[in-house]
Amino acid sequence: MKMSKILSRSSCSRNIFVIILLFVMVLAACNPMEKEWNRAIKENTVEGYDTFMANYPDSKYLQEARNRKAMLLPNVVLQQIDKSVIHTSANVYGIPEKVKTEAGVLLAEFLTKGGWITGLNAYFYLDNRGARGDEVIKVTYADDLGTSTAKEKNIPFADSTSYTVKVTITFESNVSWMAASYGSSRSNTVTIILPTGKKDSFATRIPSWEGSISGIEITEN
Predict the structure, then answer these.
(1) Running DSSP on this structure, what letter comes out for residue 187?
(2) Dihedrals φ, ψ of 208, to 5°?
(3) Were both Cys, which of 4, 49, 59, 215 would link to 168 (CB 3.0–4.6 Å)?
(4) pLDDT confidence of residue 144
(5) Do the Cβ atoms of 186 and 144 come closer than 8 Å?
(6) Are 84 and 179 in contact (CB under 8 A)?
(7) Is CATH 3.30.9 the right assignment for the domain spanning 77-220?
(8) Which residues, other chains included, contact 15 with Cβ-Cβ below 8 Å and sequence gap of 6+?
(9) Which region holds residue 107: left if phi is over 0, alpha if psi is between -120 and 50, else beta?
(10) What is residue 82's three-state secondary structure?
(11) Of the candidates 205, 111, 102, the residue with the CA atom closest to the CA atom of residue 166
């Protein structure tokens, strides 16, 4: 008889637990915040977490939503630089020397020797969103006659820092700036490509022989 009562109480306890669990599940299913949170997790997109945080700024899941969003963002991004107006200075030989934006941001400098052009440096600017780790940055160089080279550089990034990337292009032979008078100039484009596929370019038209990427340097700002 005692054993029967014990079993009956145990069965009753289990039933109560199941009922409570079902009740909690029903409440969660009826809660629009819970439904949207579960949807955001399932989709796992920046837009989904942004929508959830905008709709429920006081949610208990707010910090987790921020953390999940951060994991989806790229470590390194291009700085937004206004290039709508640029200025080019020249040296004593009349050769372009430096190219800057209206705000004074250096975009490129031409490498010269006397009245000869030997290459150019192109500058790109990056921001780190606050994560540590290595990123593989790709750089390409091309001109309108089909010359094309590419290099990759593995760069370790620290916390919350901005960076300057200098890409050096060296021409096979020195070219006189006067060659421009004879239609010998060609377009030269240097492009940086981030792991996310985002890219930035510097393009100019100068007299040059075939060139190649001879160096990639990165410095913390």
Answers:
(1) E
(2) -160, 155
(3) 215
(4) 82
(5) yes
(6) no
(7) no
(8) none
(9) alpha
(10) coil
(11) 111
Q: What is the pLDDT of residue 182?
A: 47
At residue 138, the pLDDT reads 94
Provide CB contacts within 8 A for 20, sequence distance 6+. Answer: none
- Taking 50 as the pLDDT cut, the residues of the chain under it are 1-3, 5-7, 181-182
pLDDT at 1: 47
Q: For 22, phi and psi rounded to 5 degrees?
A: -65, -40
Q: What is the pLDDT of residue 196?
A: 79
> What residue type is assigned to position 76 of the chain?
V
pLDDT at 7: 42
Give the helix, strand, coil percentages of the chain, each rounded to 5.
30, 45, 25
Please give the Cα distance from 43 to 156 (Å, whole number): 31
- Measured between alpha carbons, how far is 119 from 109 in angstroms, rounded to an integer? 9
What are the boundaries of each domain within the chain?
Answer: 2-73, 77-220
